[in-house]
Amino acid sequence: MEPAEAAPSAAVVDKLVGSHREFLRFLERKVGSRAIAEDILQEAFVKSVERADTLRDGESAVAWFYRMLRNAVIDHHRRRGAAERALAQFAQELDAELEPAAEMNGVVCACVRSLSATLKPEYAEALERIEVDGVTVQGYAAEIGIQPNNAAVRVHRARAALRERVKVSCGTCADHGCLDCTCKPREET
Hints:
By secondary structure, this protein is an all-alpha fold. It is 71% helix and 0% strand.
């Protein structure tokens, strides 16, 4: 049988909860966002209960908690940096895709164009500018005033939404690829 984890004393909990505002200000300065700071602080409070047994006798609970917060901020920035690098790579891959043959552009399923009009306006616009007009993701991002990473995410989501619409409308034709689309939209069940 494993020994039970030591729960923090009521005095330690009171001290940590009493310092909530200071912790939040500290985090907000480090991450630049109140919402993210609140999330990090909430997670740190949970971890502090789980790791209360690491608090050494005589150690200040506040100093111990600030160490936890600094580690949480470092972890946050690492995750964010990794996500930004992945999105930048995705944007480069989107721009590096080969242009389909000219004859393929004329064979594109007519229903795809009509279904793209049913997407959210920003998705439809993104697909039109990037897929039809041939604008790069970076160029599109500059046009509408957003970061290239955000534009890449928007295009990815627009493609996924369009793919789902085509599956609903065309059924198996969408899975196997149709070159001469004559399908009529299926009734949704």
